[in-house]
Amino acid sequence: MRIENSEILLWVEEKPAELPQHYLSVLSLREQEEMQKIPNKNRQLEYAMPRFMLRELLYNSYSEIIYDSNGKPTMANQSISISHSKNYVAVIVGKNKTVAVDVEEYREQVMNVAHKFVLAEEKTDFNSLEDLILLWSAKETLFKLTNATPDFKKFRVKKTDKHLCGEVLNEGVAKSIKMSYFRGEKYCLVWTASPI
After folding, report:
1. What is the predicted pLDDT for the residue at 59?
2. Whole-angstrom Cα distance, residue 105 to residue 1?
3. What pLDDT does 54 receive?
4. Using CA atoms, how far apart are residues 84 and 175, in angstroms rounded to an integer?
5. Contact, 60 vs 77, CB < 8 A?
6. Which stretches within 79-173 are classed as H helix?
7. How much is the pLDDT for 174?
8. Distance (Å, rounded) from C-alpha 189 to C-alpha 136?
9. Measured between alpha carbons, how far is residue 83 from residues 101, 111, 127, 189, 190 in Å?
10. Which residue in 20, 31, 99, 171 could disulfide with 27, CB within 3.0 to 4.6 Å?
């Protein structure tokens, strides 16, 4: 799935079973050397696939991904975000916006940890397995955008028919952050684009 509008370029793709040669062909020599240091084949795919996708989206505007002090992927002159799940990779690029994205597959295990991230006031909007995965994905997106806190109970999310609205609860003034979402058959995707 690809989305392009005035704010973002977004692409989510299912991972192939094997690392395709055309993913490798676009990597720089430094990127190829970095990837070869990764012993796990799945992690190599997670390294190469978003770089391939970002090159496809950005063409000549692509520059190598670097990681900030928080481990967040960044790119010179571009706001980007990357997300992996077991079977999917998502990338987003902001057009004069700061962006964040998260992709999550529906999995039963989240029911066992819901108490760690669901606030009492969120329970009416988010009560099914699919809703809980959507909530987790929204909070992960808020964390990626703000780097505020890894404690997901310090984020509050409300759901409307078309969007999610998130807030960081540990700041003096809670800023409302609008997030978009998509629910697929096997996964959900949440993203946001905020003014730079």
Report:
1. 87
2. 15
3. 97
4. 27
5. no
6. 110-113, 129-146
7. 67
8. 10
9. 6, 21, 24, 10, 10
10. 31
**Type of residue at 13:** E
Is the distance from CB of 190 to CB of 134 less than 8 angstroms?
Answer: yes
Strand 8-14 and strand 2-4: the pairing is: antiparallel
Q: Which of 26, 92, 89, 84 is nearest to 55 (CA)?
A: 26
pLDDT at position 146, please? 86
In order along the chain (196 residues), what is the average pLDDT of each group of 10 residues? 95 95 92 95 95 94 89 91 97 94 95 92 92 95 84 86 85 78 96 85
Q: Say how many C-beta atoms besides its own lie within 10 A of residue 176's C-beta.
A: 10
3-state secondary structure (DSSP) of residue 29 = helix
User: Which structure tokens are listed for 13?
Assistant: 């793709």
Tokens 């969007």, residue located = 163
Query: What pLDDT score was predicted for residue 152?
Result: 81
Rg of the Cα atoms in the chain:
17
State the Cα angle at 33 between 145 and 65, rounded to 5°: 20
Which pLDDT belongs to residue 1? 94
